[in-house]
Protein backbone atom coordinates (compact mmCIF):
# COMPACT_ATOMS: atom_id res chain seq x y z
CA UNK A 1 0.00 0.00 0.00
CA UNK A 2 1.46 3.39 -0.92
CA UNK A 3 2.31 5.83 1.83
CA UNK A 4 0.20 8.97 1.96
CA UNK A 5 2.13 12.22 2.18
CA UNK A 6 0.11 14.50 4.44
CA UNK A 7 0.23 18.23 5.12
CA UNK A 8 -0.47 18.61 8.83
CA UNK A 9 -1.60 21.77 10.59
CA UNK A 10 -1.01 21.71 14.33
CA UNK A 11 -2.87 23.49 17.11
CA UNK A 12 -0.99 24.23 20.30
CA UNK A 13 -1.89 25.19 23.84
CA UNK A 14 -0.41 28.20 25.65
CA UNK A 15 2.83 26.41 26.68
CA UNK A 16 3.30 25.34 23.04
CA UNK A 17 2.33 21.66 23.33
CA UNK A 18 0.69 20.19 20.26
CA UNK A 19 -2.87 19.30 21.21
CA UNK A 20 -4.53 18.71 17.84
CA UNK A 21 -3.68 18.17 14.22
CA UNK A 22 -5.75 18.94 11.16
CA UNK A 23 -5.05 17.46 7.74
CA UNK A 24 -5.55 19.51 4.59
CA UNK A 25 -9.01 18.89 3.06
CA UNK A 26 -7.50 16.98 0.12
CA UNK A 27 -5.60 14.72 2.53
CA UNK A 28 -8.72 14.21 4.64
CA UNK A 29 -10.68 13.14 1.57
CA UNK A 30 -7.99 10.63 0.60
CA UNK A 31 -7.87 9.27 4.16
CA UNK A 32 -11.64 8.77 4.17
CA UNK A 33 -11.41 6.90 0.85
CA UNK A 34 -8.67 4.66 2.27
CA UNK A 35 -10.70 3.97 5.41
CA UNK A 36 -13.75 3.20 3.31
CA UNK A 37 -11.82 0.55 1.41
CA UNK A 38 -10.80 -1.05 4.73
CA UNK A 39 -14.34 -1.15 6.21
CA UNK A 40 -15.07 -4.73 5.10
CA UNK A 41 -12.11 -5.92 7.19
CA UNK A 42 -12.66 -3.95 10.39
CA UNK A 43 -13.82 -6.67 12.72
CA UNK A 44 -15.68 -9.85 13.54
CA UNK A 45 -18.99 -8.00 13.58
CA UNK A 46 -18.72 -7.81 9.78
CA UNK A 47 -17.67 -11.41 9.26
CA UNK A 48 -20.70 -13.07 10.85
CA UNK A 49 -18.32 -15.04 13.08
CA UNK A 50 -18.46 -15.11 16.86
CA UNK A 51 -15.45 -13.35 18.46
CA UNK A 52 -13.11 -15.51 20.54
CA UNK A 53 -10.79 -14.56 23.41
CA UNK A 54 -7.34 -13.31 22.40
CA UNK A 55 -5.55 -16.18 24.17
CA UNK A 56 -7.65 -18.73 22.25
CA UNK A 57 -6.86 -17.01 18.95
CA UNK A 58 -3.12 -17.09 19.69
CA UNK A 59 -3.30 -20.78 20.65
CA UNK A 60 -5.12 -21.60 17.41
CA UNK A 61 -2.63 -19.66 15.31
CA UNK A 62 0.29 -21.43 16.99
CA UNK A 63 -1.39 -24.82 16.61
CA UNK A 64 -1.93 -24.30 12.87
CA UNK A 65 1.50 -22.74 12.29
CA UNK A 66 0.21 -19.47 10.84
| CA(first)-CA(last) distance | 22 Å
Number of domains: 1
Strand order, main sheet: write it out.
1-2
Mean pLDDT: 81
Mind describing the biggest β-sheet?
2 strands, antiparallel
Number of strands: 2
Uncertain spans, ≥5 residues at pLDDT below 50? Answer: none
Rg to the nearest angstrom?
Answer: 19 Å
Strand content: 15-25%
Helicity level, as a percent range?
25-40%
Structural class: alpha+beta
SSE string: EEHH
Q: Enumerate how many helices there are, as a single number.
A: 2
The general outline is elongated
Compact overview of the structure:
By secondary structure, the chain is an alpha+beta fold. The protein is built from two helices and two strands; from the N terminus they run E-E-H-H.
Can you give a write-up of this model?
Helix content is 38%, strand content 17%. With 66 residues, the protein is an alpha+beta fold. The chain has one domain. A hairpin with a 5-residue loop joins strand 1 (8-12) and strand 2 (18-23). The longest helix has 14 residues, at 25-38. The model has no long low-confidence stretch (mean pLDDT 81).
Topology (SSEs and partners):
Layout: E1 8-12, E2 18-23, H1 25-38, H2 54-64
List keywords for this structure.
single chain; 2 helices; alpha+beta; elongated; 66 residues; two-stranded antiparallel ribbon
Amino acid sequence: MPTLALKEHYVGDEPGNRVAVFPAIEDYSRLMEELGSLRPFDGPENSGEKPIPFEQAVAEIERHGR
